[in-house]
Amino acid sequence: MAAGRAGGVDCPTIRKVKCDETRPACNRCVSTGRTCDGEIGAASLPVSSRGRPLLPATSTGSSSSLSGKTVPFWQSISHDLTDRERYGFEHFQNVTAPALQAILPSPEWVSTALQLSVREPTVFLAITATGTMARALTVLMHSSFPRPLIQEPALEATRQYGKALRLLRYRLNTAASMEGGAESTLLVCLLFVCFETFRSQNSAAAQHAHLGWNLAKSCSSYTQGMYSPSARFFDSVFSQSNGMSAFFVDKQHHDLDCCSDWRDLSSTSFKSWKEAVINLNALATAGDHLRAEFFQLAKARTSFTLDSRVSTNGFCFCLTACLSRTIAISGMQATRLQQLQIAHRRWKEAFVEHEDKLKRRDLRTFLLLRTKHLYSSFTLATCRDSNELPTDHFTNDFADALDMAERYVKEEGKPISATGQETQTQIRFFGSSILPTLDLIAHKCRDPQLRYRAIHLLSKIQKQEGLEDSQALSKYAQAAAEVEEGRAQSILGLEEKLLPSTLPEEARFSDVVTVGEGARQIFRLICARYVDAESASQEIEVVEYEAGSVPLRLCSSQRVLV
């Protein structure tokens, strides 16, 4: 049978091999729970594209005993593994692990996790879940929506995650008293951090990080200065990020139950700045989920309208984001939107009395809070605008946010490692803080001076937050800015100087989706806008620009009546 494809991974060719032991008790058949018939289907053990076994080699480590013989863990459970779990492990081994090692500080824990997976069931299952979720990621990026996930592998990854989580809970009851077992638990915490980051659940990622950090500090080896690979990673990250005091911008994927207990959060005063933090996090989450509901309504409409034969995932994503601005919503949703917009204004007014105290106590936290508030309030205030002129009202807010972002980067300075030596760069992998706001300004601010100031800052700070790299974001945003300016110049004429006040609505895009990944890789832009927001028949223009010479080359343009 010819090899097939499953989620971008080569399926193995099915072939038969002879058992080399006496039936009916040959070790290979007993270990998989099958009845020996003299042949074994080799499809159960796919081979990676690099020529390595998908699962760890049998010569390393052992932890299970079957029929009086000791065999590696993976072989002892091979009859319980699905092909998707095997592909998840392979993807992590061949694709995800090298990527993590390239972007993380103290990345030695990644190879340690692969080595321990041979004999540690919890680590093995956490790797399969993380690798499967990585397979679900797309290369579609939007400045205010989470990356869309491929549904089938995402659901499978969540199932695998639950399987690993049940084992982790058991582990936590014994890890504190078992020094040898603590390392595998720490590695699982790190893998779960990656898993949650891949699906844009940054707060959940931070919770796993805090759990691992607290566990690492409780180990006697850590207190004696003998760091394991995982403990070394936790120490480097937490010591650099001021105790992980950042308040993450969660571009969370919305589900049916997460907003069932929504409440009015329009507080007019706070007893402390910590209460202000809790309220802002709740406001930001409620706002993200409400916009996600609009997106889901538009997605259903888009799926019904478009011909799947002529529309790509990037095209659908961009059109859906644009359509979510005008799709019909319920009276309850409209009320929630209004209440949340009022609550954001009241939060800013109430926070004033705590600003001075927080500045003295923790300047970074103050800067991150104000930056997060701008990001959340702007996306909420403009999520129902079918044209872009109202964004000009936020020019002063954009300028303030840039001042705060630059000050935050300056305050970070050169991070100090656990040994007291300065490191070259600071990389914040858990969650996101500064990059989403800078990316938003770079795409939405039409004042050339402020826009390119944000783009320049992105290109220079060398930060990795979650899945996003500042230099790649800078490149994408600059391309979008050049496209808009080129459109404006063609409308106004080459002899007229381009000013913020003269950038016509026809040149502006409501939504821009980047298709591509990495600062050096080829990418495309898919951009959408309403042709005439006042028209009774709503028409959305979707244009696609292909990477090439500057400015990007226009390769397709079409209008969709919605």
TrEMBL record:
Coiled-coil segments on the chain, per record: none
Keywords: DNA-binding, Metal-binding, Nucleus, Transcription, Transcription regulation, Zinc
Annotated InterPro entries: Transcr_Regulatory_Proteins, Zn2-C6_fun-type_DNA-bd_sf, Zn2Cys6_DnaBD
Superkingdom, natural source: Eukaryota
GO molecular function (one): zinc ion binding
Protein name: Zn(2)-C6 fungal-type domain-containing protein
Protein source organism: Zasmidium cellare ATCC 36951
